[in-house]
Amino acid sequence: MFEDLDQKSLEAIANAAVEQNYQPGQEIVRQGDTGVGAFIIRSGKVEVVQDRDGTQTKLATLGPGDVFGEMALLDEFPRSATVRAVEPTTALGIQRWHFRGILESHPQIALAMLTRRVRNAEHMLPEAARH
Fold it and tell me: How far, CA to CA in Å, does 43 sit from each of 32, 64, 72, 85, 111?
């Protein structure tokens, strides 16, 4: 997500990020809550689950280097899924208000984020619906 940024912008993100630790079973974000930022997993593993009509569906398992919650950097809509640690996990949190200035100077990041989101959604569709 950040591969096209120059060193100054990367440093700005790194300075704005806050490291947080989570224990197994601890929710990092909860479906329905208003998102205020994104997370980059430094170590550990998390699962992404979504409540669909009272049934929890596991959408993904993420690990070091993976990013989640990135849509909250662009909008203020409720979280679409719950993310919880499945083992001791360390993540870097980036708040929307810190990220907005970087987006102003690098708008292509928003396009890359949206493209990634659409590609991930396509993988969750049945094969027949992808074409």
Answer: 26, 5, 22, 11, 27
Please enumerate in sequence order all residues whose Cβ is within 8 A of that of 13, keeping only pairs 6 or more positions apart, or say none.
Answer: 2, 5, 94, 98, 99, 102
pTM score:
0.76
pLDDT in tens, 95-107: 887 777 777 777 7
- How much is the pLDDT for 128? 46
Plot region of 62 (φ>0 → left; ψ -120 to 50 → alpha; else → beta):
beta
- End-to-end Cα distance, the chain: 26
Pick from 122, 101, 116, 126: nearest CA to 5: 101
